[in-house]
Design brief:
The chain has about 250 residues and is mainly β. It contains two helices and 18 strands. The strands form three sheets. Strands 1, 2, 3, 4, 5, 6, 7, 8 and 18 form a nine-stranded mixed sheet that branches.
């Protein structure tokens, strides 16, 4: 089959535009443990800023917020931080623990401090469609290995383009191929590394040559895990009218 070079050029430009858009919506999440007034340890995760009308939420994996709650219940001083904005009294607008999804309420003034551009939920893209086997999706996340601390905190990002291998009612699976990683973030990915802990909650976009809707959040990933589980967002609520629930 003869492929028109112009078609390849258009596809490359469309993918580049999607990568930039994915980065614009993604947020970093940090669970900062404090000892004697200083950050002594941290865990990282990823999320995505959504806008439902006048309400803003950060979508992430439920297990990230559950870990925060457990640390607080154990009496540890720990803070939940999105980008560089602390959430002192975090609340969820909606949560689905069995499917590992949570929508974290963002205070009206706080969303202006986030570095992310809101993904505006609308009837044509929300709730999103269910993916199918062999669909292509794009992941944008912030693994811990790409975080660097100096005079400023750098959150290196990765984009991963991969095909859907298996689909369930509330999830889908991706077969990770490291040679398909796109090194286009602020920190280069170490070539021999396979531990991508910290991408939990990372947004997953459908590559459909159309609206490229947000379709899922990373639920399981990590060292030597070739199969990633993605929590599907097609089961998420169409709107958010209930008050938030404290963690």
């Amino acid at each position: 089959m003869i492929v028109d070079p112009g078609d390849l050029s258009q596809a490359s430009a469309a993918l580049h535009a999607l990568r930039l858009r994915a980065w614009s919506h993604a947020t970093t999440i940090r669970l900062a443990k404090v000892t004697d007034g200083k950050e002594s340890a941290f865990n990282t995760a990823s999320g995505v800023l959504l806008q439902f009308g006048q309400r803003y939420v950060v979508a992430t994996a439920w297990h990230v917020l559950e870990k925060y709650s457990h640390l607080r219940q154990d009496g540890q001083e720990v803070y939940l931080i999105c980008d560089n904005v602390p959430f002192l009294e975090p609340r969820t607008a909606w949560r689905d623990p069995p499917n590992d999804i949570a929508l974290l309420d963002v205070a009206a003034a706080s969303h202006l401090g986030l570095e992310a551009v809101p993904y505006r939920v609308g009837p044509l893209i929300w709730p999103p469609p269910q993916v199918k086997p062999h669909d292509s999706v794009l992941i944008c996340g912030f693994p811990k290995l790409m975080r660097r601390d100096a005079e400023e905190i750098l959150h290196g990002s990765l984009n991963l383009l991969v095909d859907v291998t298996r689909v369930g009612e509330t999830y889908f699976m991706l077969q990770i191929e490291l040679d398909r990683l796109l090194n286009a973030g602020t920190v280069k990915i170490p070539e021999a590394t396979t531990d991508f802990g910290g991408v939990s909650g990372a947004p997953v976009f459908l590559v459909d040559n159309g609206a490229n809707p947000l379709v899922g959040l990373v639920s399981e990933s990590g060292e030597n895990l070739p199969l990633w589980r993605i929590a599907a967002l097609n089961c998420a609520p169409a709107d958010l009218s209930q008050p938030g629930t404290p963690l």
